[in-house]
Each structure stands twice: as C-alpha cells, then as structure tokens.
C-alpha cells in the first residue's frame, strides 16, 4: 500500500504518496522466505529433494523470473504507466504466493518462485523510477531510499517470522500486502512525467498539483517538465541498440556498473545462505538470523537520512569500504577454521564480518544504485535502459545465489575474499565514473551528463 509523508513546502503542506510498502512483502520477503529461517523448518516430504544443485536452483530460481520481469519492465511501465505496471506485478506476486502455499511438491514451489520473481523484477524497476518522478529534487534521494527501507523491513520481518511459523504460513502472509497494494494504488496519482510524455496534459497538471499541494505554485516545475518532454518528442522510439550512442553510453556504463558492483559483491549469496554461513562458522543459525534482521532496519533508516545530506557518491564509497571490511573478516574467520588456528575467534569474526557487511550494504550499496538508476537516464530511453540495468542486476543476483553454495563448499575463505575484491573495485569505480546527483532535478542531471 502507499505510505503518506507530510512535508512543509513553503507555506503549504505537500502530500507525497509513496508506493514503497509494496516491498514489505512483494519485493523483499519472497527472495528470502525459504532460503533463511524458513528453510530450517521446511516439511521434509516437500523439501527432501532440494539438495545439492536442485537446492541451489530452488534458491536462485526467483531471480530467473526477476530477469524475465526486468526485460519487460521498461516497456510495460512506458505502455500502461507506472501504476499499471505495479498493479500487474502485484497480480503476479499473488499468483506466485498462492502456488507456493498450495504446493505439494517441488514443481509448484518453483512455479511460485518464478511468478513472484517476475513481479519483483518489474517492481524493482518501476518503484524507484516512479518515486524519482514524483519527488522534489531536494528529497528525491531519501524518498527513493525509502524503497530500500521497505525491502529491508520486509526481509527482517520474514527472517523473524520464519523462526516461529511454518513456511506455508509465511508464504500466506505475502498475499495481504499485495491485495492492500491493489486497493492503495487507487489513491496514488500517476507519475506526472509519464502523463506528460504520453500527452495527457490535463491529468499531468492535476497529478503534479496534487503531489505538491493544493496551494503550491507548480508553474515553473510544470514548464520545465514540458520543455524537456518537447525537446525529446522528436526523437524516434528508443531501442536497445540506441543505448550505444555516445550521448547514452556514459549513463549506461554507470547504471550497469553500479548493478554489477552491487550484486557481485555477494549480497544474494550471503543473504540466501546466511543460516548455513553462520552454522559453518559454529554459530546458531537462528541467533545469526535474528542479529541480521535487527541491524538492517536502523542502518537503512540512517542511509535514507544521509542520502540527501552527504550525497550519493560519498555514501556509496563508504558503504563499499564497509562491505570490503566485512567480507575480509568473514574470509579470515574461515581461513583460520580451515587451518585450525585461533578457533575461539572463528565464530566471533564470522558474525562480525557478516553483520558489518550487511550494515554497510544497507546504508549505501543497497539503495544508491537504484536511486542513481532512476535519475540518470533521459525519459525517452528510460524504459529500455532501465530494463537492461535491472536485467543486469537480477542476472547478477541469480549468478551469485546459484554459485554461492558451490563456492563456499569448495573454498569458504576464498569465496569471501573474492567478494571483498569486488567491493574494493566498487570504491574505485564510483570515484572514477559516478557523478553526484544530489540536489538536481532530473532534467538538470540529463543536461550535466550530456555536457
């Protein structure tokens, strides 16, 4: 459903309806509901065949559905609007959750994961884009980061619920927020920029006024959006190959590069198999999971506050440095365990490493790439470019979640050192390539990138 944020804008109150509560279940519980606490209590007759490669496929198949959703997300959002895309995604998630709930064997479980994955793939593009298009420039980063906050809250709720309820009950909880979302979208205005792009002038003005407040003067912002839309109106309909044009290549490298850095730093492997990681280090899976869930929310709130204060670049570099430290500590702990050295330190180092990693990821590496992705592409290529960037993100999620089980069985310390190397390269990439977008309108960002 939508949350309401009341903001003072001059002498008036502006009402911003955010769709980020979507992610409490539709975009956050589903990636983790079977792979963390719930996997510990799954029914043996249903889950018995989920071993070795089959278990890895089950853990990662959601991301396959998300890749399909990512490929189609931009076109869908451009064709039926941001709200229409969210409604469609919610319907896919409902079908997926029902399939999981009624499953008696592996087939329906996998089908459910693919359907929820498809919905998540579309959500992961359209939600940050929608928020970026309705938010004022001075609050856009924080409001877009609210999307990540809701993902974290949903994941944390799922982690904690999974320690006390069965996986079928946990799956059933995914239905309610999806249904509430379908109702809540009726009270949310469509993206004014999308309405302007498709020529619905009266609805554009109404939506913008509603977002900024009844008494707010929106004439300047309206003219700026209209001028920008008119400038790109003569351009042909964008295709994937058009992204290779010189004027689009830099934002494309930035968007794709940030998603590669985010995913190949290991978040989905560490996330999907956190309970096994803690167990391998000699810790209770439940203790580690509860600690994981408890640390994410306050850290993500801090990141949302800092997004429009410290800026995107600095937050991303500090975050990547933290994930490098966390992976290094976890790698050291498994190295010590393998060589039977300082064994009393192994559980503490593993716990500290994983918790530092998730805290650092939550403050920057998690939300920043999505914020920047929603800001850097011109609206005429935002659909195809956003689809490609989101596809890269979900391909990385699949690759990491599928290979993690094999990698950590082969060489646990080496796996974490590999991820730490990616985190180190992330710092260099952001310092060299990523512009600061804080405090600029979307139109100003396009002009600066083109310049």
TrEMBL record:
* An annotated GO cellular component: membrane
- Please state every residue range assigned to the domain named Major facilitator superfamily (MFS) profile: 1-438
Q: Which domain of life is it from?
A: Eukaryota
A Pfam family the protein falls into: Sugar_tr
Question: Known PANTHER family for this protein?
Answer: PTHR48021, SUGAR TRANSPORTER ERD6-LIKE 16 (PTHR48021:SF37)
Q: Which NCBIfam families match?
A: SP
What is the official name of this protein in its record? Major facilitator superfamily (MFS) profile domain-containing protein
Output the lineage of the source organism. Answer: Eukaryota, Viridiplantae, Streptophyta, Embryophyta, Tracheophyta
């Amino acid at each position: 459903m939508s949350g309401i944020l009341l903001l003072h804008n001059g002498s008036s109150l502006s009402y911003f309806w955010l769709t980020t509560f979507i992610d409490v279940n539709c975009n956050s519980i589903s990636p983790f509901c079977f792979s963390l606490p719930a996997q510990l209590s799954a029914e043996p007759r249903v889950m018995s065949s989920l071993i070795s490669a089959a278990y890895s496929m089950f853990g990662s198949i959601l991301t396959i559905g998300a890749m399909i959703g990512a490929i189609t997300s931009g076109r869908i959002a451009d064709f039926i609007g941001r709200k229409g895309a969210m409604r469609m995604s919610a319907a896919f998630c409902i079908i997926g959750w029902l399939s999981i709930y009624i499953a008696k064997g592996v087939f329906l479980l996998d089908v459910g994961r693919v359907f929820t994955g498809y919905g998540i793939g579309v959500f992961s593009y359209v939600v940050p884009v929608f928020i970026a298009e309705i938010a004022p420039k001075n609050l856009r980063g924080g409001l877009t980061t609210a999307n990540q906050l809701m993902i974290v809250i949903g994941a944390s709720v799922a982690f904690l619920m999974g320690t006390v309820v069965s996986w079928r009950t946990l799956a059933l909880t995914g239905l309610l927020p999806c249904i509430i979302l379908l109702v809540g979208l009726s009270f949310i205005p469509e993206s004014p920029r999308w309405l302007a792009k498709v020529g619905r002038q009266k609805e554009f003005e109404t939506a913008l006024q509603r977002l900024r407040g009844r008494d707010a003067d929106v004439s300047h912002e309206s003219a700026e959006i209209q001028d920008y839309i008119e400038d790109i109106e003569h351009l042909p309909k964008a295709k994937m190959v058009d992204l290779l044009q010189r004027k689009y290549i830099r934002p494309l490298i930035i968007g794709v590069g940030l998603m590669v850095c985010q995913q190949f730093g290991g978040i989905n492997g560490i996330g999907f198999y956190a309970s096994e990681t803690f167990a391998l280090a000699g810790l209770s899976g439940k203790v580690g999971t509860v600690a994981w869930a408890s640390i994410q929310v306050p850290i993500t709130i801090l990141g949302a506050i800092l997004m429009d204060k410290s800026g995107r670049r600095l937050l991303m570099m500090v975050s990547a440095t933290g994930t490098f430290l966390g992976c290094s500590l976890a790698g050291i702990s498994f190295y010590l365990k393998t060589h039977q050295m300082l064994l009393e330190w192994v559980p503490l180092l593993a716990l500290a490493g994983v918790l530092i990693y998730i805290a650092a990821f939550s403050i920057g590496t998690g939300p920043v790439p999505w914020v920047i992705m929603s800001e850097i592409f011109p609206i005429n290529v935002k659909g195809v470019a956003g689809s490609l960037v989101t596809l890269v993100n979900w391909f990385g999620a699949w690759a990491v979640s599928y290979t993690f089980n094999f990698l950590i069985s082969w060489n646990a310390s080496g796996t974490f050192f590999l991820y730490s190397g990616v985190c180190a390269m992330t710092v260099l990439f952001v310092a060299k390539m990523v512009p600061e977008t804080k405090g600029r309108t979307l139109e100003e960002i396009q002009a600066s990138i083109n310049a």
